[in-house]
Design a protein that fits this description.
By secondary structure, this protein is α/β, with parallel strands linked by helices. The chain has ten helices and twelve strands.
């Protein structure tokens, strides 16, 4: 197999946050600019949930607009330093939607993952297709011959990095469908991963260092090294990339993400139907089963809206739930009818459906705004 080379003349680099362009692709951008190529950096958020290194800037944390403005300023300076390697560097933020930095949490396994609750405009909460639309718009204008972004794992696993990869892959596939010549797809190779090309040396290190110094709120700068965590990396350490193919499943991933809601809706329909006709044993004959069943439906529907920041799972749950209830209301093969045509049966069949519809159609459910400590919710 011939050795891969990277000699893009029109390179589009897609990153999630300010400072990523310098941390992961500073050498590559400088090397391509020095070779006379044109480079376009597309940044998807303004890094609003970044954790600052400098004590005097700690007051910015939690102030999303202020942090975003500060980091956008750092990015402008960093790009001007990288542009000294050549003269054809362009930059923009994604679209007009102003996606927010999602931040991340560490799960019990010690791995980065999404926060339990996030602003609905956070990148990780947005539709992959919407972000891909913004990337594709830049592709049509800039007409790159190569696109570079994170690998499918999002590098070290940041949810915004994963979303950037998925949206970029989707944009490339949509671009191909329009009978356009698709650019090569390159991803950043993490340490110990296979790579095709390593770029960076002492010549490009001076540009990368100057760019990283502009991001001093996020990056610790030392004489020969820099760090964003506990590991120090030399400025002249090459950046490694490999050629990739956008996954054909990228269009299905948003749908598959919610598929688990289908069996959940079926189980809810079965459980509620079996419960709804149970009554108390006292003389009041209170329909305790119906109350419990309707409470189950309301609680689960609300939980999906509040925790998922999306109606997708709720749509699928409602469809499978209503279908299950409808099927159980018909005469079964043995002749029995599980949902009788009486008042309790009607309340269960129509009331549960109405609850799902109300929760699904309710304009906004934003738990963060209910807490006095919440910040950054628009």
């Amino acid at each position: 197999m011939p050795k891969q080379t990277f000699n893009s003349r029109r390179l589009l680099v897609v990153h999630a946050h300010p400072d990523d362009e310098s941390l992961f692709t500073g050498h590559i951008i400088a090397e391509r600019l020095a070779a006379g190529a044109e480079v376009y950096v597309l940044t998807l958020t303004r890094g609003e949930r970044g954790k600052v290194k400098l004590e005097e800037l700690k007051g910015l944390e939690g102030q999303l607009r202020a942090m975003g403005a500060f980091r956008a300023g750092e990015l402008k300076v960093a790009l001007s330093e990288l542009a000294k390697a050549g003269s054809k560097l362009q930059h923009s933020f994604a679209g007009t939607r102003a996606f927010l930095d999602s931040g991340m949490r560490i799960n019990p396994m010690g791995r980065p993952t999404k926060k339990h609750r996030n602003d609905e405009m956070s990148l990780a909460s947005a539709s992959t297709a919407v972000i891909a639309e913004d990337i594709e718009r830049v592709m049509k204008e800039f007409k790159p011959d190569a696109i570079l972004t994170y690998n499918a794992k999002g590098g070290y696993g940041h949810p915004d990095h994963k979303m950037a990869h998925q949206a970029t892959a989707m944009a490339i596939r949509q671009y191909r469908r329009q009978k356009r010549r698709a650019p090569q797809f390159w991803v950043i190779a993490e340490p110990h991963e296979r790579f095709d090309v390593a770029i960076g040396d002492a010549r490009t290190a001076k540009f990368k260092r100057a760019a990283l110094e502009a991001h001093s709120s996020q990056v610790s700068i030392f004489a020969e090294t820099y760090s964003v965590s506990s590991t120090e990396i030399r400025y002249d350490a090459p950046e490694k990339i490999r050629k990739a193919n956008p996954s054909p499943l990228v269009h299905l991933r948003p749908i598959l993400t919610f598929f688990w809601a289908i069996p959940l809706g079926i189980l809810l329909g079965l459980a509620g139907t079996l419960l709804h006709s149970i009554k108390t044993t006292d003389t009041s004959h209170f329909p305790i089963g119906l109350a419990v069943a309707l409470t189950m439906v309301a609680s689960l529907a609300l939980a999906l809206r509040l925790l998922r920041n999306s109606r997708g799972a709720l749509y699928l749950l409602t469809i499978s739930f209503v279908t299950t209830v409808f099927m159980l209301s018909q005469k079964q093969p043995g002749g029995e009818v599980l949902i009788l045509g009486n008042q309790i049966g009607d309340i269960w069949a129509y009331g549960s459906t109405a609850i799902c519809a109300i929760v699904m159609l309710f304009p906004r459910l934003r738990p963060g705004s209910w807490r006095r400590s919440a910040s950054g919710h628009r």
